[in-house]
Write a structure and sequence with these properties.
Elements: H1 2-27, H2 32-42, H3 54-68, H4 70-90, E1 97-99, H5 101-104, E2 113-118, H6 123-131, E3 137-146, E4 149-160, E5 163-170, H7 193-201
Parallel strand pairs: 2-5
Antiparallel strand pairs: 1-2, 3-4, 4-5
Helix pairs in contact: 1-2, 1-3, 4-7
Length: 217
Amino acid sequence: MAKQATTRDQRMRQRLTQEAARIMVDEGVRDYYQAKRKAAVRLAAPDTQNMPRNREIQEAVAEYQRLFQGEGQAQRLRELREAACEAMRFFGRFRPRLVGAVLDGTAGDWSDVSLHLFADTPEELDLFLMDNGIPFEWAERRLRFKRDAWATMPVYRFVAGDVMVDMTVFTSDGLRQAPLSPVDGQPMSRANLQAVEALLAGSGGQDDLLDIPLAGR
């Protein structure tokens, strides 16, 4: 009976992983916890304790995109990386770093270009945006830097063509310590402009990250 229960749990975990990945890709849900909870409800298992890890879902997202989106996803990823390069050149004085789905290769139709910028004060970016006539939205984001250490950071968002650019502003010292990734709890991968250009020069897929030095982590 124990073996049957274990097999049943494994199958449920796999179904939850696949459904959460589908929700993130097709419905644009970006929060892993929210995607998992929605998947559990849809699979009639709202109280399950057998939730997959975020890393499992990210891997399932990449597989789902490969199977069902193919060249369409690859083309959109390339467009987003090109937009990221343009934004990074424009905001060069703030030493931009690309993070998130556009960097790791799982970006799709719902994805933003997510950048980390660095300045002595957020007001420097305020003035830069206003001086260049760029309308923007302002918000805040809580990021984790250690197991029990969180910080609230300013976020600026603006639209470039059909792409939303999301910029989290750190102090200059923030280059030395990246916040922890919601995927695996490790310091986020960050790529400077040279690294992103190298990704574009390759095939543009997730595996390219294995050969690209992600500068400025």
